[in-house]
Amino acid sequence: MTQAENGSPDELAAAVRDLCSRFGEEYWRKADEARAYPEAFVAALTEAGYLACLIPEEYGGAGLGLAEAGTILEEINRTGANAAACHAQMYTMGTLLRHGSREQKARFLPGIASGELRLQAFAVTEPDAGSDTARIRTFAERRGDRYVVNGQKVFISRVDHSDLMMLLARTTPEAKVAKRTDGLSVFMVDLRETGGSVRTRPVATMINHHTSEVFFDDLELPAENRIGEEGEGFRHILSGMNAERILLASESVGDGLYFVDRAAAYARERRVFGRAIGKNQGVQFPIADAYIDVCAAAAVRDRAARLYDGGGSPGAEANMAKYLASRAAWKAANAAMDAFGGWGMASEYGIERKFREARLYMVAPVANNLVLGHIAQHVLKMPRSF
Is residue 87 one of the residues assigned to a domain? Predict the structure, then answer.
């Protein structure tokens, strides 16, 4: 039995914190400065079974729900670690789990569960399409018992640290489909077998995120690597986006609590003009305000997770959780930076690193303005704005 299968939610959170305590601020600061992948941390999470928590027990996972997965990611980020280094291993397999054949599940899931196979990359975004997924142009042409793929993707995170990659590509030209979202298909790419047909180019970013451009030059894929029905790929990946947004909301909740924890402790201890700076309303009120927002976001996240684990499709709740949590974490980040003052800019304290990391979720994996558009159109029934 892995650590991921043990105990109550509180015990699970405590076990995650205990594991993360082995990887303190110095570990993350050095990784950030070197732009290094945190191999030891990822290996420890894998060995403990946390990254396989959503995989059914029959395939070697813990068979837990989204609520428990959210607890794991929240606690990782609350300690000052960065779950984005490996969170995709936890949920990218969802498309395979929901839409893959029995043979595909038996072929891939046990290796993903054990960590023998890393599935860290999901290739969807393209330079000219952005968030308009229906406009992607990477094309997989059917030739007998195989597909030949040509095209380009961008912002594909952790591809250089993956054995497998999920790929969304067109299999029918956009001009020949009734709906723009038709004619897309999902494939599992074994990166160990691609030779020179897949090339990557790192994209330098403000955080240590290991994202890349990916180029496909006559990549040949066996037809049995297609996940689900041909042409139904857009709907297949949508089924996993709610889970992704709920889990990334959990990371933002963890970030928000990290900033609040650190800022409140510093405000209690730091003395200026003969008194703790936390006595000043200008210091304590922003921290308290951010904490309230983080708690509110966590409540919406919890509701979304309950609905998802109960078999629902909580699109509105998942999007709102991601929106609220990312904004709350950013508010907490700024409150902490103000409380620490100049020391907040010093890398040794960790605030500036987490400050940069927290900003990501305001724009990814979906920009908050697109969340507003989704709620306006699908919940409030206003005209589509984009």
Answer: yes
| Predicted confidence (pLDDT) at residue 21 exceeds the cutoff of 70 | yes
**Average pLDDT, stretch 17-38?**
98
The answer to whether residues 102 and 139 belong to one domain is no
Query: What is the per-residue pLDDT for 2?
Result: 67
- CA R_g for the chain: 21
Q: What's the CATH number where 146 sits?
A: 2.40.110.10
Domain housing 51: 3-114
Instruction: State phi, psi for 170 to the nearest 5 degrees.
Output: -75, 140
Options 232, 244, 251, 317, the catalytic residue: 244
DSSP helix/strand/coil, 226: strand
Mark whether 195 and 100 lie in a shared domain: no
Residues 171 and 96 in one domain: no
In terms of DSSP bridges, do strands 164-170 and 119-123 run parallel, antiparallel, or are they unpaired?
parallel
Which pairing describes strands 198-203 and 211-222: parallel, antiparallel, or unpaired? antiparallel
Four-point Cα dihedral 308, 314, 318, 320, nearest 10: -140
Q: Does 49 fall in a domain? A: yes
- b/e 71-80 (16+ beta carbons within 10 angstroms → b): bbbbbbbbbb
What confidence category does residue 240 fall into, taking pLDDT thresholds of 50, 70 and 90?
confident
pLDDT, greater one: 5 or 246: 246
d(CA 118, CA 165): 9
pLDDT, one tens digit per residue, over 158-189 is: 999 999 999 999 999 999 999 999 999 999 99
Q: How many domains does the chain have?
A: 3
Indicate whether 216 and 303 sit together in one domain: no
Q: Cβ contacts of residue 23 below 8 Å, gap of 6+?
A: 38, 40, 41, 44, 81
Q: Would residue 244 show up in a list of annotated catalytic residues for this protein?
A: yes
CA–CA dist 290, 121 (Å, integer): 33
* Cα separation values, 20 from 2, 16, 57, 244, 349, Å: 16, 6, 25, 22, 17
Pair 73, 178 in one domain: no
Tell me which of 231, 261, 279 is where a domain ends: 231
Sign of CA dihedral 164, 105, 246, 26: negative
Q: State pTM to two decimals.
A: 0.96
pLDDT at 1 over 60: no
Per-residue pLDDT, 338: 98
